[in-house]
């Protein structure tokens, strides 16, 4: 598996996600989640796995996507690795996953357990907006990927989901639901409560960056963006006076974005 010398997991800091590891695990076991119904089917369509490839899921949490990748591509001999900075989430991932999936507790910007050029594809799913040191994360992705390896990233759409600077509005006169954006180009760092309306002490940090931020970093780190898709919500409103307007706005305004970046064979 091209592992480097083992490091001590005890040196990792405590994280906000570690405190709610059991809650997050229970959340992803529920039906109707974006992770299961929207993101997973699209990723399985886009991964384009070849025989005996190695997939590495960064910020894997409790291992939901890593397990699904393993099950889907088992016949192709795929090998799956997952890492997360939360030791608590990694413990859950190891407990609930086949032993063939290797999980490591590690910061996304310091992947010392992996050798250079050892991974075919990397996924970062709904996590990049919670990571501060994105530049170093992309440097590590470039280091551990093989030449022409791919980085597949899913995140909240930065143009339409700006933490505490975007919201739904309703035009009563024209019967239209719209998306209000109060800020976009300015980067921000905000606290987001994990349980809205309950347990205000439990929060995570979310970082907003415009799309140009990511495209510039891809270029600086030897990546070329090869594919981009925007995904809208798959949910439907219950019957009511605003149901039609709500469903139309969901179809027109994407809340998630997918970007695929390929590592150049030679340094740009």
Give descriptors for this structure.
268 residues; alpha/beta; Rossmann fold; 7-stranded mixed beta sheet; globular
Number of domains: 1
Biggest pleated sheet = 7 strands, mixed
Helix content: 25-40%
Number of helices: 8
Radius of gyration: 19 Å
Output the CATH homologous superfamily. Answer: Vaccinia Virus protein VP39
Tell me the strand percentage band. Answer: 25-35%
What spatial order of strands do you see in the largest sheet?
A: 3-2-1-4-5-11-10
| Shape assignment | globular
List strands and helices in order, with pairings.
Elements: H1 16-19, H2 21-29, H3 34-46, E1 54-58, H4 64-73, E2 79-84, H5 87-96, E3 102-105, E4 119-125, H6 134-144, E5 145-156, E6 166-171, E7 176-181, E8 188-193, E9 203-208, H7 211-220, E10 223-231, H8 243-252, E11 256-263
Parallel strand pairs: 1-2, 1-4, 2-3, 4-5
Antiparallel strand pairs: 5-11, 6-7, 8-9, 10-11
Structure description:
The model has no long low-confidence stretch (mean pLDDT 89). The protein has helices at residues 16-19, 21-29, 34-46, 64-73, 87-96, 134-144, 211-220, 243-252; strands spanning 54-58, 79-84, 102-105, 119-125, 145-156, 166-171, 176-181, 188-193, 203-208, 223-231, 256-263. The longest helix is centred in the N-terminal third of the chain and has 13 residues, at 34-46. The protein is globular, with a radius of gyration of 19 Å. The protein has 268 residues and is α/β, with parallel strands linked by helices. 29% of the residues lie in helices and 28% in strands. It has a seven-stranded mixed β-sheet, sandwiched between helices. Strands 6-7 form a two-stranded antiparallel ribbon. The chain has one domain (9-158, 209-237, 254-263): Vaccinia Virus protein VP39 (Rossmann fold).
């Amino acid at each position: 598996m091209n592992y480097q010398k083992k490091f001590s997991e005890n040196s990792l800091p405590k994280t906000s996600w570690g405190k709610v590891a059991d809650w997050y695990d229970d959340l992803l076991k529920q039906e109707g989640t974006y992770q299961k119904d929207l993101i997973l089917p699209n990723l399985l369509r886009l991964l384009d796995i070849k025989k005996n490839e190695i997939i590495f899921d960064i910020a894997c949490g409790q291992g939901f996507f890593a397990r699904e990748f393993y099950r889907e591509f088992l016949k192709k001999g795929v090998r799956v690795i997952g890492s997360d900075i939360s030791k608590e989430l990694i413990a859950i991932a190891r407990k609930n996953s086949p032993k063939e999936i290797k999980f490591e507790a590690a910061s996304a910007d310091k992947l010392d357990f992996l050798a250079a050029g050892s991974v075919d594809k990397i996924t970062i799913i709904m996590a990049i907006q919670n990571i501060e040191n994105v530049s170093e994360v992309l440097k590590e992705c470039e280091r551990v990927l093989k030449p022409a390896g791919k980085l597949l990233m899913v995140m909240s759409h930065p143009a339409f989901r700006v933490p505490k600077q975007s919201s739904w509005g309703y035009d009563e006169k024209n019967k239209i639901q719209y998306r209000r954006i109060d800020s976009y180009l300015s980067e921000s760092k905000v606290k987001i409560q994990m349980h809205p309306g309950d347990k205000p002490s439990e929060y995570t940090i979310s970082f907003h960056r415009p799309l140009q931020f990511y495209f510039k970093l891809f270029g600086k780190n030897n990546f070329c963006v090869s594919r981009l898709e925007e995904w809208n919500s798959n949910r439907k409103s219950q019957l009511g006076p605003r149901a039609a307007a709500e469903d139309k706005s969901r179809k027109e305004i994407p809340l998630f974005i997918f970007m695929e970046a390929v590592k150049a064979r030679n340094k740009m």
